[in-house]
Amino acid sequence: MLTRRRFLKTTALASATLLLGFRLDGRPAAAAEGLAPDAFVRIAPDNTVTIVGKHIEMGQGSHTGLATILAEELDADWSQIRVEAAPADAERYNNLFWGPMQGTGGSTAMANSWEQMRRAGATARAMLVEAAAREWGVPASEVTVDRGVVSHAPSGRRATFGELASKAAALTPPAQVTLKDPKDFKLVGKDLRRVDGRAKTDGSAQFTLDFALPGMLTALIARPPRFGATVTSFDATAARRVKGVTHVVQVPAGVAVVATSFWAARKGREALRVTWNESRAETRGSDDLYAAYRTLAGRPGTPARREGDVEGALRGAAKVLEAVYEFPYLAHAPMEPLDAVVRIGADGCDLWAGSQIPTVDQQVVARVVGLPASKVRVHTLLAGGSFGRRATPNGDVAGEAAAVAKAIGGDKAVKLVWTREDDIQGGRYRPLYVHRLRAGLDGQGNIVGWEHRIVGQSILKGTPFEPMLVKNGVDGTSVEGAANLPYAVANIAVDLHTTDVGVPVLWWRSVGSTHTAYSTETFLDELAHAAGRDPLEIRRALLTKHPRHLATLNLAAEKAGWGQPLPAGRARGIAVHESFNSVVAQVAEVSLRPDGLPKVERVVCAVDCGTAINPDVVRAQMEGGIGYGLAGALWSEVTLTQGRVQQRNFDGYRPLRIGEMPAVEVHIVPSGAAPTGVGEPGVPPLAPAVANALFHLNGQRVRRLPFARLAPAGTRTS
Amino acid sequence: MPTLRINGAARTVAAEDDIPLLWVLRDELRLTGTKFGCGIAQCGACTVHIDGRAARSCVTPAAALQGREVVTIEGVSGDVARVVQDAWRRLDVAQCGYCQSGQIMSAIALLSEIRRPSDADIDAAMTGNVCRCATYVRIRAAIHEAARTLGG
Asked: What confidence score (pLDDT) does residue B152 get?
């Protein structure tokens, strides 16, 4: 029988656990059930090892990679590993490269976690070993661990992690641990199957769009027809008549139609009439921007790099080449439309989302709802792709969901969904850019001067990242890949014009390198051609001080059979580019479609990403990066006419389809260095490698992307 | 209120007017393995089988399916389905995984009709299924591998 005294004691304990949530030393309160030496791993009596992933899984394999690193030092068996997403917490789940912020981006997940997850695994292992040694009365130095089994050979004793977990939990974690010699790695470097592979093939993987709560409502927002327009008034009479529509409310992003189902919300939004105030909206079109940017490109900008005397070098050159490039706005278009679920409750607020920066979302939701951030619990779900789109410095989608939940009175959970039309038309694009390059050759075909001018919007201006990444008026993400051009040229100048346009922009898989790799690597090819030099040879000659570039370039060239004959109608192009501390070289083998567009037959890719934690995931990321880069180069462009986006869905914003995907061969440069990025670096070299091959087929230098501009709609074949 | 056969069971659904099958599956029956990607039959994330053939549920009115046999990723079964899902796992096709239900449903429909598809057959059958992670290299390889397994 439950006495009053015991009841009080029990509830007091329960409250303490709930209130604390985590012990002050960072150990989860639930640790009593098993071993949880830190915030990254829990070993349960049932012998499962749960790894807490501080990085979002959006397809890039971060959960598999984090688990591999930790399991390696733990000497766990791969089959006992589970991964769960960490709650938002900038202290414990900080991205160590970013400062106090939990975030996944810039291809940093493995690089910033490498030491941290190794230490976490080694710590847990040491505690299991110590627990076994005490239990068996043997020296810890005689206890070994292999594939999830702790053993003492002299006595023949064995125990599973699960059997030792509770005893190990009573020990104090060691202050010092010894990490493995990489030659002893058993999991790192192996093609382990992904931890999410099964759930992603039977329909059970849960994305935010799949998440539901009892009584949850779905909201769509009627958004302005031009960026910067605001609501003047709206007539919700017809919308409210749609069966299932429960609320029509104004929010900062527009007018939200809330309903008991997606379909009702969609029909309600169609029936809604909104009058917009467009007096402060952006009304320029893409052509207006290109024209203005081209004019700017004729004038010096803010210096990003200056070495030697470029003007003098160009004046004295035997030959000067000049090229102007145009890059359109690009939508990320991840397959899962943007979405977030918010529930405001008596004890705080819950957010379910697949966000790349959960602690920013946490702060944004807290501000909107009017709570301290500590009262906003973030539940991170799988993201159905992102490519940068779910990494908004202003937490746009989560903030909208919170605004709607608050506007309807806060008694129901709200799932906010962007339709595909909202996604393509709603902004946060890779910025539109114009580049102007000039370079001089001497009589021997050497490059004597290189001038590179970039014109476009800043991604970081006005965001919390600005103080960190904008230096002396130069947004590092606008010039990365150009300002750090690796080629040995004595006189070099890179400068930037940052423009002010009312179109919201954002990082798009590989960020600055989405455009800088294209202009630098195709322009270098033009210079090679003008100098009568082989494109591979000129790169080798200019990269002697960059051994990683050189080795990667050579590996790609060798595996592609550079210089060897090809079937008639095919040509090769090559490009090499460093991004996110990895170097990728690609050789594209291209033929011509009847309509003049390139058909990429095969891509040979070499990558130096330091230690390849899971080589198969590295290959997958290179394959995916090549496909994403090719989609962007071949088809993708968001165009504006008088400020209105001209594309609506995948019919106008054309994705890559299976028949357009080349065969891909990936070669990984052997390396014992710490891991570097793989999610983004596969993208940048693809477009220039294809463009360089295309030149050999039709003599054209493509300076306006996408390639689809070579064949107007209506003339296209496949 | 039409009665549909979904994954082998008769389900009477409150499908009114023009609601597409996709939203009946997802919002009413909570079968969320079938995904929303575009809503205009351009991406294939919503692919299900209707009477054994691949169909885009986002543009298929549920009311028109009285008495028809609908199978989703949650209910797909048989040798072809098992072999295709196995191949997908062995090759780790999925990255973000969001489109893969649709890819797998299209692949099963293809292999149920053509046991040894050529690359051209694969292009034709799979062209309506978009993958923004561009897992196409492995999708093709997994279909060929599944075909070899099924061929015995």
From this structure: 57
- Do the beta carbons of residue A503 and residue A456 sit within 8 Å? no
With beta carbons under 8 A apart, name residues in chain B contacting A623: 134-135, 137-138
Asked whether A577 and A485 are in contact (CB, 8 A), the reply is no
Sequence length of chain A is 718
Q: Are A401 and A423 in contact (CB under 8 A)?
A: no
CB distance from B33 to chain A under 8 Å? yes
- Has residue A714 got a pLDDT over 90? no
Confidence of residue A369 (pLDDT cuts 50, 70, 90): very high
Residue A12 has a pLDDT of: 32
Contact B30 A212 (CB under 8 A): yes
Chain B residues in contact with A336 (beta carbon < 8 A): 35, 37, 96, 98
Q: How far B77 CA lies from chain A's nearest CA (Å)?
A: 11
Q: Mean pLDDT, to the nearest integer, of A124-135?
A: 97
CB-based burial label for A275 (10 Å; 0-12, 13-18, 19+): exposed
To which H or E segment does residue A110 belong? Answer: helix A109-136
Asked if the Cβ–Cβ distance from A620 to B134 is below 8 Å, we say no
Is 50 exceeded by the pLDDT of residue A64?
Answer: yes
Asked whether residue B125 carries a pLDDT value surpassing 70, the answer given is: yes
Domains of chain B, with CATH numbers?
Answer: 3-71 (3.10.20.30), 79-151 (1.10.150.120)
* Nearest residue on chain B to A200, alpha-carbon basis: B97
Top CATH class, A208-279+338-417: alpha beta
Quote the mean pLDDT of chain B. Answer: 96
Q: Is the confidence at residue A51, as pLDDT, over 80?
A: yes
Q: Which residues 89-128 of chain B have a CB within 8 Å of chain A? A: 89-90, 92-101, 104, 122-123, 126-127
Query: Are the beta carbons of A209 and B36 separated by less than 8 Å?
Result: yes
Q: Are B62 and B19 in contact (CB under 8 A)?
A: yes
pLDDT over 50 at A17, yes or no: no
B113-122 CB contacts, 8 Å cutoff, 24+ apart: B115/B147, B115/B150, B115/B151, B116/B147, B116/B151, B117/B143, B117/B144, B117/B147, B122/A658
What is the number of helices (H) and of strands (E) in chain A?
18, 29
Task: Evaluate whether A675 touches A114 at the Cβ level (below 8 Å).
Answer: yes
The top-level CATH class assigned to A20-184 is alpha beta
For chain B positions 43-62, those within 8 Å of chain A (CB to CB) are 43, 45
Structural contact between residues A416 and A219, judged by C-beta atoms closer than 8 angstroms: yes
Cβ–Cβ under 8 Å, residues A573 and A690: yes
Report chain B residues whose CB lies below 8 A from the CB of A656.
Answer: 130, 134, 136
Q: Which two tokens stand for residue A354?
A: 């697949």
Q: Mutate which of B95, B108, B110, B119 to disrupt the A interface (most A C-beta within 10 Å)?
A: B95
Would the pTM count as exceeding 0.90? yes
Give contacts of B134 with chain A, Cβ < 8 Å: 623-628, 630-631, 656, 661
List the beta bridge partners of residue A339.
A417
- Mind telling me how many Å the CA of B74 is from chain A's nearest CA? 6
Q: Is A59 left (phi over 0), alpha (psi -120 to 50) or beta?
A: left
Residue A550 and residue A357 in contact, taking contact as beta carbons nearer than 8 Å = no
Whether residue A116 is predicted with pLDDT greater than 60 in this model: the reply is: yes
Per the rule left: phi > 0, alpha: psi between -120 and 50, beta: everything else, A179 is: beta
pLDDT tens digits along A495-514: 999 999 999 999 999 999 99
Residue ranges covered by each domain of chain A? 20-184, 208-279+338-417, 286-329+429-710
Q: Judge if A20-184 and A286-329+429-710 fold alike in CATH terms.
A: yes
The matching CATH number, chosen from 1.20.58.1000, 3.30.365.10, 1.10.3720.10, 3.30.360.10, for A286-329+429-710 is: 3.30.365.10
